[in-house]
Amino acid sequence: MATDAQHPEYRLTPRRLAQPAITTGVHPSEERLAPASTRQTMVSLLTFSVGLGLVPWATDTFATDTFATEMLATEMLAAETSTAETSATAPKARQEAAQSAESKAQALDKMVVQGEDNQGLVVERSQSGTKTDTDLMDVPQTLSVIPQAQLEIQNPQSVAEAVRYTAGVQDTTGAASRRFDYFKVRGFDVSSTGMLRDGLRGTTNQAWPKVEPYGLERIDVLKGPSSVLYGQNAPGGVVNQISKRPKDEPYREIILSGGRYDRREGKLDISGPLDDQGQYLYRLTALKRDSDTQIDHIEDNKTFIAPSFTWRPSDTTELTLLAEYNKDEFGAPRVFLPTRGTLLSNPNGSISHNTFLDEPGLDNERTQYGLGYILDHQLNDIWTLHSTGRYSHVDLLTNTASGRSLSADLRTYNRMAYRFRIVGDVYALDNRAQADWHWGDVEMQSLVGVDYRHTREDYYLRAGAAAPIDIYEPVYGQGFELNSTMSRTFQYSNQTGIYAQQQMTFDRQWVLTLGGRQDYSKTRTHDLLTPAGSDSRSHQSDDKLTYRAGLVYRADNGLAPYVSYSTSFNPSLGSDFYGDAYDPQTAKQAEVGIRFQPQGFNSLITLSAYQLTQENVLTQDPDNELNRIQTGEVEIKGVELEGRASLSEGFDVIASLTYNDPEVTHSNDGDAQGNQPTNTPEKTASLWLDYTMPAQWLPGLGLGAGVRYIGDTYADSANTLKVPSYTLIDARLSYDLGQLIQGTEGLQLSVNVTNLTDKTYYNGCSLNSCTAGKDRNIIANLRYRW
């Protein structure tokens, strides 16, 4: 295994070259006159690149035949004797051509090194789109990557905030919510079934871990049905949250933060080798935060620690262990505000969007921890084995006095009290084998694997009446009783998936990807409230074949058009009025797009168009109002444009534009059919500009600014109540104090501001209630790296 790139998904190697040989810029008849040093450099570079597989066309030509490489090296070096005299007496033009060849060879060498070490905003490779180390240009599906550089400059406080500058992604998390990350991809919610950690899903039916973004190396968003790779998931796609892992070189970072809402936070990230040979590596990431929020009585306290360890017993084997502990304390999960007085007028007047209408002092907390491993072993020049496993535990406690409806006086808010606890455990495992080989002139990459996921969930819900509250003059502490047990269940679930994928590269420009997967899912639920003597158990079994086919063409000018078709499924737990289990919800997507990576520019632009349809959606039975049937369908047609570029040294751009045409194409529920699904905008857009001043101006000064636009949405299925669009502005300022004060190298001061203009908006409403968006937030960081 290559030791200069620990993790294939992080390695940024040059994209596949279309040329059949190295282009030096010298006419073929003159190339033999290049200086001896140049020929030696080219031989060394070629041999090294072929050995590591960094030059795909070289691998195509020579496969694993090292004898052919040695023969080429011998022939090139043997040419020295016969050309030395000619080279000494060559005309000036030939000498200049030879010098040009030498400089371009050096540039190629430099490009390879920079490609591997690049940690900028433009990422070129990922495993999330194919489960193999693949150039993004070869993935026949839209894949957006939020790299470490973007996480650092934008300083998101949640994963939902981290993906807000991504095309097709909508952050729906309210200001009061600290339990989960809520967001949609291509119009469909992915908060539960679409969330992955290092390629594995760690959620049960109701227990969802919330991942700390400071513990992540990057975030990959694969858009559209993705069951062929990851099993049951949401139609919108998957969000792969990739953990920080040990580094080859010593790395140390301490961050002290403070900001609005009495925020106090400390972060630590240290990593490096434990021995001189680099066989043992470690990393420790930690965070401690105490903070209030924009809404009184809601806190945002966190303790996070994540140690990791890597062992390399040989050049062909690597094992990484990843552990994590997370403790969160927060307030009421969703502080609903009545629509009358916020979105709609109220004769009693408007109410503040930050009004707290729950009860203070209630226990709301989550404890989660996990332990996982990543094991890679290269058997030979063809076969590589990969195994990933993870155990996750979530213990969520929620207490709330939630608003339900306004009384006739339009100021008395009727409430219900709830207390529920969800304890979930997930055991996830993915084993796969990859073969890199050739079938004639066709480059083949074969993948076969099996994954397994077992979940256990213990859930109870108690409820009772809570005292109503005046929305204009709230009085707290009136108490409530939780005298009714609404639900008490224990649920087991097992999912097994067998999958295969074949990637084929023809003529070094056509990339065909075919994949299929068979899933088996079984769920057993025990209803602990069932009267004695009755059967408390319900069983549900589902199986489904999903697939994907895609084709990419790699043009010589940096364009890569592609087309794909993919499917997904997700079990619908429960049964209808007559006791028949529901079928899985299914989805299908047809997508066409084009990527552009202009030569000589560090950039990547993606334009895609898609038609995404979800089927077997639950809808009202027209013949029985107590029953729901699976004839509903939602279709979303959309166009996305996303670009990332480093236009010059220190100047970076991230831009996105999304247009959707969402429609409920079949429904028996009221007036929903033919209308736009609730809380789903047609248009979104974002732009982020970031600039670091050059040394001749103000060295060490960094500036960044962004704008986010979310279009109108509807609060009801009949599309009678519209939620207005909103535009938000973000900004950042940083300064490297080492440029100003001698002896402070590695010390940086930065300030991040979100919603700079402090705009009031609502990011989700129904006919009865609204959820307030996030006010202006200011966070200052003092970071020291050494």
Description:
This protein is mostly beta strands and 786 residues long. Helices cover 11% and strands 50% of the residues. The protein contains seven helices and 37 strands. It has a 22-stranded antiparallel barrel. The protein has a five-stranded mixed β-sheet with strand order 3-9-10-7-8. Helix 1 packs parallel to helix 4 (92-117). The radius of gyration is 29 Å and the shape is globular.
The description of the largest β-sheet is: 22 strands, antiparallel, barrel
Number of strands: 37
Instruction: Tally the helices.
Output: 7
Shape, principal axes of CA atoms = globular
Question: Structural class, judged by helices and strands?
Answer: mainly beta
Uncertain runs are 1-118
Distance between the termini: 29 Å
**Average pLDDT reading:** 85
Provide the β-strand percentage band. Answer: over 45%
Q: Into which percent range does the helicity of residues fall?
A: 10-25%
C-alpha-based Rg, rounded: 29 Å
Task: Summarize it.
The chain has 786 residues and is mainly beta. It is built from seven helices and 37 strands.
Which descriptors apply to this entry?
37 strands; five-stranded mixed β-sheet; globular; 786 residues; single chain; disordered N terminus; 22-stranded antiparallel β-barrel; mainly beta
Write the layout of secondary structure elements.
Blueprint: H1 36-52, H2 56-62, H3 66-88, H4 92-117, E1 125-126, E2 134-135, E3 143-146, H5 148-154, H6 159-162, E4 169-171, E5 183-185, E6 188-189, E7 195-197, E8 200-201, E9 216-223, H7 227-230, E10 237-243, E11 251-259, E12 263-273, E13 280-290, E14 300-314, E15 317-330, E16 337-338, E17 365-378, E18 383-406, E19 412-439, E20 442-470, E21 484-506, E22 510-527, E23 537-553, E24 559-570, E25 585-596, E26 602-621, E27 624-648, E28 651-666, E29 683-692, E30 701-710, E31 713-714, E32 722-723, E33 726-736, E34 747-754, E35 762-765, E36 769-772, E37 777-785
Parallel strand pairs: 7-10
Antiparallel strand pairs: 1-2, 3-9, 4-5, 5-6, 7-8, 9-10, 11-12, 11-37, 12-13, 13-14, 14-15, 15-17, 16-36, 17-18, 18-19, 19-20, 20-21, 21-22, 22-23, 23-24, 24-25, 25-26, 26-27, 27-28, 28-29, 29-30, 30-33, 31-32, 33-34, 34-37, 35-36
Helix pairs in contact: 1-3, 1-4
